[in-house]
Amino acid sequence: MIPAMAFEWAKLRSVRSTWWCLGVAAFLQLAYAVLIGLDARLDLEDSGGPSPLVVSDAGLLSLQFAQYALIAAALLAVTGEYSTGTISLTLRAVPVRGRMLAAKAVVVGGAVAVTGAVLHLAGSVAAGLVAGSAARWPVGDLAIDTLLTALYAATLAVFTLGLGTVLRSAVGGLTAVLVIAVVLPTVLARISIDAIQSVNDYLPGTAGVAALYGAVSDVADGQPYGPLTGVLVLAAWAAATAGAGYAVLTRRDA
After folding, report:
1. Contact of 198 with 204, CB cutoff 8 Å
2. pLDDT per residue over 115-165, tens digit each?
3. Which of 55, 59, 123, 222 lies at 20 to 30 Å from 143 by C-alpha?
4. Would you say the C-alpha torsion 70, 190, 59, 102 has a positive or negative sign?
Protein backbone atom coordinates (compact mmCIF):
# COMPACT_ATOMS: atom_id res chain seq x y z
CA MET A 1 0.00 0.00 0.00
CA ILE A 2 2.83 2.43 0.82
CA PRO A 3 4.44 2.11 -2.66
CA ALA A 4 1.04 2.66 -4.27
CA MET A 5 0.51 5.80 -2.16
CA ALA A 6 3.98 7.07 -3.06
CA PHE A 7 3.17 6.49 -6.73
CA GLU A 8 -0.11 8.40 -6.45
CA TRP A 9 1.57 11.26 -4.58
CA ALA A 10 4.23 11.56 -7.28
CA LYS A 11 1.55 11.81 -9.95
CA LEU A 12 -0.59 14.27 -8.02
CA ARG A 13 2.19 16.76 -7.39
CA SER A 14 3.72 16.45 -10.86
CA VAL A 15 0.68 17.46 -12.92
CA ARG A 16 0.10 21.12 -13.68
CA SER A 17 -3.67 20.98 -13.10
CA THR A 18 -3.17 20.27 -9.40
CA TRP A 19 -1.20 23.47 -8.86
CA TRP A 20 -3.59 25.53 -10.98
CA CYS A 21 -6.53 24.32 -8.89
CA LEU A 22 -4.69 25.03 -5.62
CA GLY A 23 -3.74 28.49 -6.87
CA VAL A 24 -7.35 29.28 -7.75
CA ALA A 25 -8.51 27.95 -4.38
CA ALA A 26 -6.01 30.16 -2.56
CA PHE A 27 -7.07 33.20 -4.56
CA LEU A 28 -10.78 32.64 -3.91
CA GLN A 29 -10.19 31.96 -0.22
CA LEU A 30 -8.04 35.02 0.41
CA ALA A 31 -10.06 37.37 -1.79
CA TYR A 32 -13.34 36.60 -0.06
CA ALA A 33 -11.75 36.58 3.40
CA VAL A 34 -10.30 40.05 2.76
CA LEU A 35 -13.74 41.28 1.69
CA ILE A 36 -15.29 39.87 4.87
CA GLY A 37 -12.62 41.55 6.99
CA LEU A 38 -13.03 44.84 5.16
CA ASP A 39 -16.80 44.71 5.56
CA ALA A 40 -16.44 44.15 9.32
CA ARG A 41 -13.97 47.02 9.60
CA LEU A 42 -16.17 49.46 7.68
CA ASP A 43 -19.23 48.46 9.70
CA LEU A 44 -17.37 49.15 12.92
CA GLU A 45 -16.08 52.50 11.68
CA ASP A 46 -19.41 53.67 10.28
CA SER A 47 -21.97 52.48 12.80
CA GLY A 48 -20.28 50.44 15.49
CA GLY A 49 -20.98 47.19 13.65
CA PRO A 50 -23.63 44.63 14.55
CA SER A 51 -21.06 42.28 16.11
CA PRO A 52 -17.30 41.68 16.10
CA LEU A 53 -15.82 39.39 13.46
CA VAL A 54 -14.70 36.00 14.74
CA VAL A 55 -11.79 35.30 12.41
CA SER A 56 -12.43 31.56 12.10
CA ASP A 57 -15.90 32.36 10.74
CA ALA A 58 -14.30 34.24 7.85
CA GLY A 59 -12.20 31.18 7.03
CA LEU A 60 -15.28 28.93 7.00
CA LEU A 61 -17.36 31.27 4.85
CA SER A 62 -14.53 31.78 2.37
CA LEU A 63 -14.05 28.05 1.94
CA GLN A 64 -17.55 27.79 0.53
CA PHE A 65 -16.13 29.42 -2.61
CA ALA A 66 -12.63 27.94 -2.59
CA GLN A 67 -13.99 24.40 -2.26
CA TYR A 68 -15.00 24.28 -5.93
CA ALA A 69 -11.36 24.54 -6.96
CA LEU A 70 -10.57 21.70 -4.54
CA ILE A 71 -13.37 19.67 -6.09
CA ALA A 72 -11.79 20.23 -9.51
CA ALA A 73 -8.39 19.08 -8.22
CA ALA A 74 -9.84 15.88 -6.75
CA LEU A 75 -11.84 15.22 -9.91
CA LEU A 76 -8.90 15.71 -12.26
CA ALA A 77 -6.78 13.34 -10.17
CA VAL A 78 -8.76 10.48 -11.67
CA THR A 79 -10.50 11.80 -14.79
CA GLY A 80 -7.26 13.32 -16.08
CA GLU A 81 -5.81 9.82 -16.30
CA TYR A 82 -8.71 8.63 -18.40
CA SER A 83 -8.58 11.62 -20.73
CA THR A 84 -4.85 11.18 -21.37
CA GLY A 85 -4.86 7.38 -21.39
CA THR A 86 -2.36 7.16 -18.52
CA ILE A 87 -4.81 5.09 -16.48
CA SER A 88 -3.48 1.99 -18.23
CA LEU A 89 0.04 2.82 -17.02
CA THR A 90 -1.30 3.33 -13.50
CA LEU A 91 -2.97 -0.07 -13.51
CA ARG A 92 0.22 -1.71 -14.76
CA ALA A 93 2.14 -0.13 -11.91
CA VAL A 94 -0.56 -1.05 -9.36
CA PRO A 95 -2.47 -3.99 -10.88
CA VAL A 96 -4.69 -4.56 -7.84
CA ARG A 97 -7.42 -2.09 -8.67
CA GLY A 98 -8.85 -1.81 -5.18
CA ARG A 99 -5.42 -0.98 -3.83
CA MET A 100 -4.91 1.62 -6.54
CA LEU A 101 -8.22 3.34 -5.77
CA ALA A 102 -7.63 3.19 -2.02
CA ALA A 103 -4.15 4.69 -2.41
CA LYS A 104 -5.54 7.44 -4.63
CA ALA A 105 -8.31 8.18 -2.13
CA VAL A 106 -5.87 8.40 0.78
CA VAL A 107 -3.43 10.62 -1.09
CA VAL A 108 -6.01 12.93 -2.68
CA GLY A 109 -8.12 13.09 0.47
CA GLY A 110 -5.07 13.78 2.62
CA ALA A 111 -3.70 16.44 0.29
CA VAL A 112 -7.04 18.22 0.07
CA ALA A 113 -7.49 17.98 3.85
CA VAL A 114 -4.15 19.67 4.47
CA THR A 115 -4.92 22.26 1.81
CA GLY A 116 -8.33 22.96 3.33
CA ALA A 117 -6.81 23.45 6.78
CA VAL A 118 -4.14 25.79 5.43
CA LEU A 119 -6.73 27.75 3.45
CA HIS A 120 -8.92 28.12 6.51
CA LEU A 121 -6.04 29.40 8.61
CA ALA A 122 -4.85 31.74 5.87
CA GLY A 123 -8.34 33.13 5.28
CA SER A 124 -8.92 33.58 9.00
CA VAL A 125 -5.66 35.46 9.49
CA ALA A 126 -6.18 37.60 6.38
CA ALA A 127 -9.69 38.58 7.44
CA GLY A 128 -8.55 39.32 10.97
CA LEU A 129 -5.68 41.53 9.86
CA VAL A 130 -7.92 43.51 7.52
CA ALA A 131 -10.71 43.82 10.10
CA GLY A 132 -8.32 45.29 12.64
CA SER A 133 -10.02 46.16 15.94
CA ALA A 134 -13.27 44.56 14.74
CA ALA A 135 -11.61 41.12 14.74
CA ARG A 136 -11.78 38.58 17.56
CA TRP A 137 -9.20 35.80 17.76
CA PRO A 138 -10.54 32.89 19.87
CA VAL A 139 -7.75 30.33 19.53
CA GLY A 140 -9.93 27.41 20.57
CA ASP A 141 -12.56 28.13 17.92
CA LEU A 142 -9.85 28.60 15.32
CA ALA A 143 -8.29 25.21 16.12
CA ILE A 144 -11.63 23.38 16.15
CA ASP A 145 -12.82 24.99 12.93
CA THR A 146 -9.50 24.22 11.22
CA LEU A 147 -9.83 20.54 12.17
CA LEU A 148 -13.46 20.56 11.00
CA THR A 149 -12.39 22.10 7.70
CA ALA A 150 -9.74 19.42 7.18
CA LEU A 151 -12.26 16.64 7.80
CA TYR A 152 -14.82 18.26 5.54
CA ALA A 153 -12.31 18.80 2.73
CA ALA A 154 -11.10 15.19 2.93
CA THR A 155 -14.61 13.71 2.75
CA LEU A 156 -15.54 16.07 -0.08
CA ALA A 157 -12.44 15.02 -2.03
CA VAL A 158 -13.17 11.30 -1.65
CA PHE A 159 -16.82 11.87 -2.59
CA THR A 160 -15.69 13.68 -5.74
CA LEU A 161 -13.03 11.07 -6.51
CA GLY A 162 -15.61 8.30 -6.32
CA LEU A 163 -17.94 10.09 -8.73
CA GLY A 164 -15.04 10.77 -11.08
CA THR A 165 -14.10 7.09 -11.06
CA VAL A 166 -17.66 6.11 -11.95
CA LEU A 167 -18.14 8.69 -14.70
CA ARG A 168 -14.53 8.87 -16.02
CA SER A 169 -15.17 12.37 -17.34
CA ALA A 170 -14.13 15.71 -15.91
CA VAL A 171 -17.15 17.49 -17.38
CA GLY A 172 -19.56 14.74 -16.36
CA GLY A 173 -18.06 14.50 -12.89
CA LEU A 174 -18.16 18.23 -12.28
CA THR A 175 -21.73 18.40 -13.52
CA ALA A 176 -22.74 15.53 -11.25
CA VAL A 177 -21.10 17.14 -8.20
CA LEU A 178 -22.76 20.49 -8.87
CA VAL A 179 -26.18 18.91 -9.45
CA ILE A 180 -25.99 16.70 -6.36
CA ALA A 181 -24.35 19.23 -4.05
CA VAL A 182 -25.88 22.53 -5.21
CA VAL A 183 -28.84 22.24 -7.58
CA LEU A 184 -30.74 19.31 -6.07
CA PRO A 185 -30.82 20.59 -2.45
CA THR A 186 -31.93 24.04 -3.68
CA VAL A 187 -34.75 22.59 -5.78
CA LEU A 188 -35.96 20.16 -3.13
CA ALA A 189 -35.90 22.88 -0.46
CA ARG A 190 -38.77 24.57 -2.34
CA ILE A 191 -41.00 21.51 -1.93
CA SER A 192 -42.94 21.53 1.35
CA ILE A 193 -43.59 17.78 1.54
CA ASP A 194 -42.13 16.47 4.81
CA ALA A 195 -40.78 13.26 3.27
CA ILE A 196 -38.94 15.24 0.58
CA GLN A 197 -37.47 17.57 3.18
CA SER A 198 -36.29 14.60 5.25
CA VAL A 199 -34.49 13.20 2.20
CA ASN A 200 -33.06 16.61 1.37
CA ASP A 201 -31.62 16.93 4.88
CA TYR A 202 -29.27 14.04 4.19
CA LEU A 203 -28.09 14.89 0.69
CA PRO A 204 -24.37 15.70 0.29
CA GLY A 205 -25.00 19.40 -0.40
CA THR A 206 -27.13 19.85 2.71
CA ALA A 207 -24.57 17.99 4.80
CA GLY A 208 -21.81 20.25 3.46
CA VAL A 209 -23.73 23.40 4.32
CA ALA A 210 -24.39 22.06 7.83
CA ALA A 211 -20.70 21.24 8.24
CA LEU A 212 -19.32 24.63 7.15
CA TYR A 213 -22.04 27.21 7.58
CA GLY A 214 -23.38 25.52 10.71
CA ALA A 215 -20.03 26.05 12.43
CA VAL A 216 -20.18 29.84 12.01
CA SER A 217 -20.50 31.30 15.49
CA ASP A 218 -23.32 33.81 14.93
CA VAL A 219 -25.42 31.87 12.42
CA ALA A 220 -29.11 31.46 13.10
CA ASP A 221 -30.14 27.94 14.09
CA GLY A 222 -31.55 26.69 10.80
CA GLN A 223 -29.51 23.56 10.08
CA PRO A 224 -30.99 20.05 10.39
CA TYR A 225 -28.00 18.93 12.50
CA GLY A 226 -24.62 20.08 13.73
CA PRO A 227 -21.32 20.46 11.87
CA LEU A 228 -19.86 17.14 13.02
CA THR A 229 -22.96 15.25 11.94
CA GLY A 230 -22.72 17.03 8.60
CA VAL A 231 -19.19 15.71 8.14
CA LEU A 232 -20.30 12.19 9.07
CA VAL A 233 -23.19 12.30 6.58
CA LEU A 234 -20.84 13.51 3.86
CA ALA A 235 -18.38 10.76 4.84
CA ALA A 236 -21.12 8.18 4.34
CA TRP A 237 -21.74 9.57 0.85
CA ALA A 238 -18.00 9.51 0.19
CA ALA A 239 -17.86 5.84 1.16
CA ALA A 240 -20.82 5.12 -1.13
CA THR A 241 -19.31 6.85 -4.17
CA ALA A 242 -15.91 5.25 -3.51
CA GLY A 243 -17.61 1.86 -3.37
CA ALA A 244 -19.43 2.60 -6.63
CA GLY A 245 -16.12 3.68 -8.16
CA TYR A 246 -14.51 0.42 -7.08
CA ALA A 247 -17.38 -1.59 -8.57
CA VAL A 248 -17.05 0.21 -11.90
CA LEU A 249 -13.27 -0.01 -11.85
CA THR A 250 -13.29 -3.78 -11.39
CA ARG A 251 -15.96 -4.46 -14.02
CA ARG A 252 -14.82 -2.23 -16.88
CA ASP A 253 -11.68 -2.14 -18.92
CA ALA A 254 -9.32 0.78 -18.26
Report:
1. no
2. 999 999 999 999 889 888 877 888 888 899 899 999 999 999 999 999 888
3. 222
4. negative
